Amino acid sequence: MTTLEIRDLHVSVDTEDGPKEILKGVTLTIKAGETHAIMGPNGSGKSTLAYSIAGHPKYKVTSGSVTFDGRDVLAMKVDERARAGLFLAMQYPVEVPGVSVSNFLRSAKTAIAGEAPKLRTWVKDVNTAMERVKMDTAFAQRNVNEGFSGGEKKRHEILQLELLQPKIAILDETDSGLDIDALKVVSEGVNRVKAGGETGVLLITHYTRILRYIQPDFVHVFVGGRIVEEGGPELADLLEAEGYDKWVKGAGPAKAADA
User: Fold this and answer.
1) What are the CA-CA distances from residue 234 to residues 22, 164, 208, 221, 247 (Å)?
2) What's the angle, vertex CA 32, arms to CA 92 and CA 76, rounded to 5?
3) Over the stretch 163-208, which tens digit does the pLDDT of each residue have?
4) 23 within 8 A of 225, measured Cβ to Cβ
5) End-to-end CA distance of the chain
6) DSSP at 243
7) Model confidence over 10-23: pLDDT tens digits?
8) Sequence-ordered strand ranges (E) for the chain
């Protein structure tokens, strides 16, 4: 069974005043078919965890380990992590001028599969997937995310998720800035991928509203660069009712992270 294991992960970033520790010992295991929701206030380090797993050079792992089916993720280059089956949907998807959505998707699929998909079949698959996420198929000829609205960028992320079928999907605030209709479309896409039972999902969010559409198996409260509470879906209900205050106060000002 596909397994992503994070053990006592410590991560720092460079600042004008020297290295600043953001993650302070994160331990988490995600298996195929499981959905883990990480919830926490702004500045708690949630996005740092996502980008550290993906291999962003800004974030320096100072200790701990990340393994993926027994392989050392931290020893892999970014493209190797993607080919192995790790997928990151970014909070702020970037524009890629000069690269069409169609070429981008086919290149990604080729890199993961080791061979190019048959063009006729691939075009049909892309069009079908675009219809499912309610994207006009004309977007396939546009440059990646150029001139896309926030909702269109997030739908494009889910389009990638459906076509690439990763082993572990890390969704960094995919619900950010979405209206209710777009939220439903995005959630339905995630649920379709989950239904296969072969993809583990790490869903990072501030709010419980997306959890009304994507049912988590596990909820983790993230404060001050570490997981401070864990539970099932009922923990999300508690957060909705009470917020993060008691955990933030418990972390203390000296333990607060700011990335």
Assistant:
1) 28, 32, 11, 12, 16
2) 60
3) 999 999 999 999 988 999 999 999 999 999 999 889 999 999 988 8
4) yes
5) 32
6) -
7) 999 999 989 999 99
8) 3-15, 18-31, 35-39, 60-68, 71-72, 86-89, 96-100, 143-144, 168-172, 200-205, 218-223, 226-231
CA-wise closest residue to 216 among 17, 11, 37, 67: 37
Residue 121: partners with Cβ closer than 8 Å, 6 or more residues away: none
Q: How far apart are CA 96 and CA 107, in angstroms?
A: 14
Where are the strands (E) in 77-189, listed by range?
86-89, 96-100, 143-144, 168-172
Q: Are 219 and 236 in contact (CB under 8 A)?
A: yes
Comparing CA positions, the residue from 208, 212, 167, 171 lying closest to residue 190 is 171
Length of the chain (residues): 259
